[in-house]
Specification:
alpha/beta, 5 domains, five-stranded parallel β-sheet, 31 helices, globular, disordered C terminus, membrane, transmembrane helix, AI-2E-like, transmembrane, GAF-like_dom_sf
């Protein structure tokens, strides 16, 4: 009754929800205004877009002429005049070919009529629909006869004919001139915009940076990336189209299709139109081959030629020239083409990819517009562990196995997968175990992960003799997640030839410990994902020590705080060693089982070209210290750029390592020949692994890598991070390494490693006196899209 008399007010959204709704509405209004402005202002915006697109393509040529000492205005005039002459020449060529073909069309009429008549005769004859068609014709004839009889009986109607007055000659001329002048006016506006964009490029860049606002670094990166991507996209598009048109023209010439040069030029131009262009370019030569040849050989050969060239261009030429993806997914490419075509017509279709690339670059560099990167980008928005976790939650273990196989095929090692992605996956599972996960989710994840690990163990079987007694036992500390991590470690150990087994986790009681069957085992590894496992570790180790006091115990602290990894902390709990990753676990356990053999394996092997390498190093005379000042400056620059504590340039001969460049004064043994360089025996060389492999080596935490944890130079310089890039000559000989060292663990992104490669190339140029050889950039992350358009990175 009270509710009827005093009705309750409807629930109001929370203040935070109200703010979200208002922001969403504001964004929708802004988007609607922008789209409306693009549609209404297309008369001005289309020439501007075309002009900027052309200026992106011509800017590298203008810059090259300016670097050669040609004034900028003259450089622009030369480039634009050259472009105009090329376009005019193509126009004259196309016009002459069209005149020739139009003059010969009358000779092809009889062939076309005869071929069409033959096709008609072949399709003429009784068919399953002939009865229905005859019935429809009969009814239609009767109706027309009835209408005609009624018309004859009616009075004849008087016809009125309206004659238009003659139009003035001026009006007729305007009707002809306006459609012809409009494209010419647009072309003139585009040329003016191109000239101004090339002339005031710096001023336009400054104004765009001011409009983008915010972080100056991000704005600069946005413009630089957009210009680089679009310029290379257009250049590669031209090369791809030419690589398609040349063999097409030659093939049509050999087949005998008239106007082969015209169709080759037309194909190279029409292929700038996404999706539609290749089909349009194929229609004309096929149609002409149909008209010329009385038979079908020319038509079939032309179709076969076009299909073959399309397959070669799409699968060989484009991947080779483009190299990497535009960053646009296949779905976003199609959606962008549809959107810009609906907005600006056929010109929008041509401009769709460059304009969408600009939006993607803006979204990548401006935090406020990062949703554009998510919507348009082809790079996975979820990392590998999250993708696998989602497939397990969705009860799709087969898809999770496919992801795992792809990652292992790319990285080349099951141990690397476990180390980089497997443990991260288990951390995600452990974080949600008592939180967001429901009982059904936990069951799906557990069963799915069992299938994934079983598949890996079958595909990559153990290298240990099945009859060999186990030397290592891995035991999960508490949760099922701990057991999964131990299963990964066990598999990684067996792949390295270490006899290891996994024991089931359980409640740590005296009965459970007695059933573990660890008499033949030498090392016991206990794994924990808990952030505070001290109490559980202490109780478990106490029982293990009581039952097997001679066993060595290793703690696998996958998620524990860093202070627990200090030797005094884990030794106080009764453990002999502690590890934090699968790779470290394999190295530590190998070292405990065979200390001498492990030390030998940790030493770097000699390169195959050791003698040539040393001869090339001696020939540079860099060990005499003649390039010390320049190399010190490069080392100092590297340390400043990467904000690292220490940067060194080292060279290694047959017996010693020489620090030939350093960013700061370092302790160490000095050479006695007057060069005052720090030297160390080659057995203790800090860069020997880089020289041996010729590959970049990054150790995020040297305390966790047995090769560096006890290294004399690492301890002497008190560093915990190491990154070494080989100093490789043009002949492929590694003279030494450029190294970064820091007092704290850290990571380096691929872009930072590319930058370090460039500094190393400068160091090689200083050492050898040769020109700088630009290093190849590292491969970008693969696209998540199965189909995409390529673009240079």
């Amino acid at each position: 009754m009270a509710n009827d008399l005093f009705p309750q007010e409807p629930a109001r959204p929370a203040p935070g929800q109200q703010g979200d709704i208002v922001r969403l509405a504001a964004w929708l209004i802004v988007v609607a205004i922008i789209i409306g402005g693009l549609y209404i202002g297309q008369g001005v915006l289309i020439p501007l877009a075309i002009a900027f697109l052309i200026s992106f393509a011509l800017s590298p040529l203008v810059s090259r002429l300016c670097r050669w000492g040609v004034p900028r205005v003259l450089s622009i005039c030369i480039v634009m005049a050259t472009l105009f002459m090329l376009v005019a020449g193509l126009g004259l060529l196309v016009g002459s070919q069209l005149r020739m073909i139009s003059a010969e069309l009358t000779t092809y009429q009889w062939t076309m009529r005869q071929k069409i008549d033959n096709l008609t005769d072949q399709f003429r004859g009784p068919g399953i629909f002939d009865g229905a068609i005859q019935t429809v014709d009969t009814v239609q004839k009767e109706l027309s006869d009835a209408v005609q009889e009624n018309a004859d009986e009616a009075e004849p109607a008087q016809r009125v004919q309206v004659v238009a007055p003659p139009r003035p000659p001026l009006q007729t001329a305007l009707e002809w001139l306006v459609p012809a002048v409009a494209p010419l006016a647009t072309a003139g506006i585009v040329l003016v915009f191109v000239f101004l964009a090339l002339l005031d490029r710096g001023d336009l860049r400054d104004r765009l940076i001011h409009l983008l606002g915010g972080n100056l670094h991000r704005s600069t990166d946005t413009l630089e990336e957009a210009g680089k991507r679009i310029s290379k996209y257009l250049l590669m598009q031209v090369l791809v189209n030419v690589a398609y048109a040349v063999p097409l023209g030659l093939g049509l010439f050999l087949i005998g299709v008239p106007g082969w040069l015209l169709w080759a030029v037309l194909a190279s131009v029409l292929r700038f139109i996404p999706y539609v262009g290749p089909m349009l370019s194929a229609i004309f030569p096929v149609a002409l081959a149909f008209a010329v040849d009385p038979g079908w050989n020319m038509v079939l050969m032309t179709i076969a030629l076009i299909v073959t060239l399309e397959a070669i261009s799409g699968n060989i030429v484009e991947p080779f020239l483009y190299g990497t993806s535009t960053g646009l997914s296949a779905l976003s490419l199609i959606a962008a083409a549809t959107f810009w075509t609906a907005l600006w017509g056929p010109v929008g279709l041509i401009l769709s990819t460059p304009l969408t690339v600009c939006l993607l670059v803006i979204g990548r560099n401006l935090p406020q517009l990062q949703f554009l990167d998510t919507l348009l980008g082809s790079t996975p928005v979820l990392d590998v562990p999250t993708r696998i976790y989602q497939r397990l939650l969705a009860n799709q273990p087969d898809e999770a196995i496919e992801i795992v196989d792809d990652v292992i095929e790319k990285e080349g090692s099951v141990t690397e997968f476990y180390n980089e992605h497997g443990l991260a996956l288990l951390r995600l599972i452990s974080q949600d175990y008592t939180g967001a996960a429901r009982a059904e989710h936990r069951l799906r994840v557990a069963k799915g992960l069992d299938e994934v690990l079983d598949d890996l163990q079958q595909e990559y079987p153990s290298t240990v003799d099945a009859a060999a007694p186990p030397r290592v036992a891995c035991i999960g500390g508490k949760w099922e997640v701990d057991s999964f991590a131990c299963e990964m470690l066990t598999h990684a150990l067996t792949l390295k030839g270490v006899a290891a087994v996994q024991r089931p986790a359980g409640v740590v009681t005296a009965r459970y410990v007695d059933k573990l069957d660890l008499d033949e085992v030498q090392i016991i590894c206990l794994g924990y994902f808990s952030r505070k496992p001290e109490r559980a570790i202490r109780a478990f180790i106490r029982r293990l020590r009581h039952r097997w006091p001679e066993k060595q115990i290793v703690l696998a602290l996958w998620n524990a705080p860093e202070d627990l990894l200090e030797p005094d902390r884990y030794q106080a709990l009764g453990a002999d060693a502690a590890i934090t990753s699968i790779e470290e676990g394999v190295l530590r356990i190998e070292g405990l089982l065979q200390p001498e053999a492990s030390r030998d394996r940790s030493k770097a092997a000699l390169p195959e070209n050791e003698q040539q390498r040393i001869a090339a190093l001696r020939a540079t005379r860099v060990l005499d210290g003649h390039a010390r000042e320049d190399l010190d400056a490069l080392a100092k620059r590297a340390a400043d750029v990467f904000d690292a504590e220490i940067s060194i340039v080292s060279a290694i001969d047959e017996n010693r390592e020489f620090i030939i460049g350093q960013s700061k004064d370092l302790p160490g043994t000095r050479s006695q020949d007057g060069s005052d360089m720090i030297t160390m025996p080659r057995a203790e060389a800090i860069c020997d692994h880089v020289v041996a492999t010729g590959k970049t080596l990054v150790v995020e935490d040297t305390d966790r890598d047995p090769r560096f944890a006890d290294h004399p130079a690492i301890r002497n310089w008190q560093t915990r991070f190491y990154a070494g890039v080989p100093l490789t000559t043009g002949d492929g000989l590694v003279l030494g390494a450029l190294c970064l060292l820091d007092r704290n663990p850290r990571k380096l992104e691929d872009e930072e490693l590319d930058l370090l490669d460039r500094i190393a190339a400068d160091a090689v140029s200083v050492i050898t006196g040769d020109d700088v050889i630009a290093p190849e950039p590292r491969e970008a992350e693969e696209s998540s899209a199965t189909v995409g358009q390529s673009l240079p990175d």
